């Protein structure tokens, strides 16, 4: 239980919560190290709206009865702290003799803070404290608190205690600025993000978030790492996700949760890389300047990673929100990957446990529908955004295609599908021969082979987390790179009831506006760099797609002229890199097959407006415009904006297009910060045919060159169209 207000001294407990808005008390030991000479007890108060008066009374009662208590910090106050001061008839006399506690003599403050402090001084009824001068600057400045002087003052001086206890709440009430409080607490050794922490109450809990500034034009309130599903461990391992039950707890949502287990290839972002099976967490970002009279559009980001790696925090969603000129609420989340998310087999089918990672996603979308309004978001205006696996047919594409769930269509209303599409990769039944082979290998590695079907899942649920993750990664690596990677979504007669191409041709799917695109060198990270001979090129395709006969393989050879035979082939590699002579040819063919052509097919078949892009700026000499490169541009991430003024503009333009589409379904509707050409929708015939926005063509600055290229240009882009006609023809011809 929480300590009563009349306790003789606060109890140094780790955490105590009480709904109805009393106190949350937490020991704050790092502060004591900053005042070793005083050896006092420090207690941090988190106040909830109505508690400032009670807490202030509590503070003074402790100061009156406990001379060994040196300071209490009010971590979260409301503007009505003034009322609390008045109710308690607090006199400013204790401060009159020490005005330097509020600011340094002669200190110049930003106008808004100086005015606020002057109001506070006037409110307290004293005329002996001269308000500080004001400047026109709005840059954050640290008030001259002279904490070092206060720390060495004798604890026997009650007026000093009184002043010290009031100092932080007075300044916060006057300035009401998060950045100021961050600096004050940082000096004292406690690293908190804001003075008034954002809090939102939903049926499951009250989420207390943080504020991310990072010099964004608009600071962003973030609610990080909160669970949207029960921990998928123990009996819930290899089970459908279970929603978090209603409750009255307070959850500190100020740090990302751990990523789901899988081999991480890209930097996860957001600090230390921590993974755990208990990973079904979500993050919500919103600008601090949300309109009060209406709900705003919502973006839900689905991360990529071949369904075996990746995490929500790879995407700098806070930056995307902070640089937007109009408000929207953004959501990112983790879902189960690898074997934990896609252990698809005859055994799991019997239990109704196929495509668990997709069920995680559906639960998240249901959570958004039911709760996002509490954060200011419009549940009737949701855009899905995803890259690679986050965009493939098995994710956004199949959420579009799903016609079985009665609630599916209302869960989202627009889609941004990056480097993926509803026909990306062959999609196979759960009981295909290769899936069973991969499943049996997994059972052997986890020491669960040779058991009856009914004993397999209990065995796997009792296995250690480490053994499950190691086995999952080992099986995936055995079939990598391949279109038949392990642990992929399957046709399950539920979320995925049919092949993607059949769905497109039927016309029976969610008709939502789509913005989609591909990168020029999608295949560079997925094919063997040592491919040297023409025979190896052909063998790659024969192994990857065993349904291709000699006739089809001959067509592939013709579509991608062999540089060993045709010296003028565009696939002749003259870069002087340590790669095989057939590598450039192979990566182009694979990129078309796996990414470019499915994206073009989306534009070809869709009955709603499609805005198509072609990402062409080179990041490296080897990778070119590599798979996923555009992700850091859409978020206006510093890794791109710091490269050059050209890349900053490229990031700004791409960011503005994507944000405008999220807000309106039209990449041109919202002006944004950067001047940009009109992006016309793709069309099949006439003047609109093949209209594609090409980004960064000719720019190789990041690859060490000097070419600046063209930021964005709308072209009738037919690159890859001829090759795609062939790959489209092979989509129905799959080998199960």
Number of strands: 19
The average pLDDT value, as a whole number, equals 75
- Name the overall outline: globular
Sheet having the most strands: 11 strands, mixed
CATH architecture call of the largest domain: 3-Layer(aba) Sandwich
Amount of helix: 25-40%
Describe the structure.
- There is one protein chain.
- The protein is globular.
- The longest helix is centred in the last third of the chain and has 23 residues, at 583-605.
- Residues 1-109, 119-132 and 134-195 have low confidence and may be disordered.
- The protein has 24 helices and 19 strands.
- Helix 5 (111-123) crosses helix 7, helix 14 packs across helix 16 and helix 20 packs across helix 24 (721-730).
- The strands form 4 sheets. An 11-stranded mixed sheet has the order 8-9-11-13-12-14-15-16-17-18-19, with helices on both faces.
